[in-house]
Design goal:
The complex is a heterodimer of chains A (113) and B (113). With 113 residues, chain A is mainly beta. Chain A has one domain: Sandwich (Immunoglobulin-like), CATH 2.60.40.10. In chain A, 0% of the residues lie in helices and 59% in strands. Chain B is mainly β and 113 residues long. Helix content of chain B is 0%, strand content 53%. Chain B is built from no helices and eleven strands. In chain B, strands 2, 4, 5, 9, 10 and 11 form a six-stranded mixed β-sheet that branches. In chain B, strand 6 (55-58) and strand 7 form a beta hairpin. The chains are: A mainly beta (113), B mainly beta (113). At the A-B interface, strand 5 and strand 10 of A face strand 5 and strand 9 of B.
């Protein structure tokens, strides 16, 4: 599983509250990604990081921010959660023989009431 | 933006029947990857196809990459209940986006015992 953990695994929060999800990896991979998964939409990229303090937006970045102050940790923050951000969030790292394969963490189920 | 279309969205088969899912991109891909997600789980890498016309097999699974590197398919022979899950293709495009995967929306496979 490429040593990827996500915390929390489940969270229920209220609209308007800030939420931070954490992705932790143990194998010093440079690239890390945050996706959200919703029925009928597959996996959509929110933000990614290509190094410490180096991040960029993905397809659905509005309402989300990220930070990476250490190689091993990639944080996803919902500054003011909305019900439309109810989803399953997956973190991934890029690795593999060609360096393009992605390995996913177990996911965080977020419910915004 | 670049999109990978995947069909069908759902497939219900009787155990022992074959199953195929197809992916298509409007522009040439650098490579294409396939992932499987079991119910309640996270996406797991299956295989990567890089060469035009490439065919790879994993036991009962056969993966193909089109000659033009714009389409791909996954075929499962004689499905088993362990094949249940959602199968995603993910394309990699050349150039600036080569560190990103563009996922199809997935095909959810149900196997009736």
């Amino acid at each position: 599983d490429a040593g990827i953990t996500q915390s929390p695994r489940h969270k229920v929060t209220e609209t308007g509250t800030p939420v931070t999800l954490r992705c932790h990896q143990t194998e010093n991979h440079r690239y890390m990604y945050w996706y959200r998964q919703d029925p009928g939409h597959g996996l959509r990229l929110i933000h990614y990081s290509y190094g410490v303090k180096d991040t960029d937006k993905g397809e659905v970045s509005d309402g989300y921010s990220v930070s990476r102050s250490k190689t091993e940790d990639f944080l996803l923050t919902l500054e003011s959660a909305t019900s439309s951000q109810t989803s399953v969030y997956f973190c991934a790292i890029k690795a593999g023989a060609w360096g393009e394969t992605q390995y996913f963490g177990p996911g965080t189920r977020l419910l915004v009431l | 933006g670049q999109q990978v279309m995947q069909i069908p969205q759902y497939q219900h088969v009787q155990e022992g029947e074959d199953f195929t899912t197809y992916c298509n991109s409007s522009t040439t891909l650098s490579n294409i990857q396939w992932y499987k997600q079991r119910p309640g789980g996270h996406p797991v890498f299956l295989i990567q196809l890089v060469k035009s016309g490439e065919v790879k097999k994993q036991k009962r699974l056969t993966f193909q990459f089109g000659e033009a590197k714009k389409n791909s398919s996954l075929h499962i022979t004689a499905t088993q209940t362990t094949d249940v899950g959602t199968y995603f293709c993910a394309g990699v495009y050349s150039g600036a986006g080569s560190y990103q995967l563009t996922f199809g929306k997935g095909t959810k496979l149900s196997v009736i015992p």
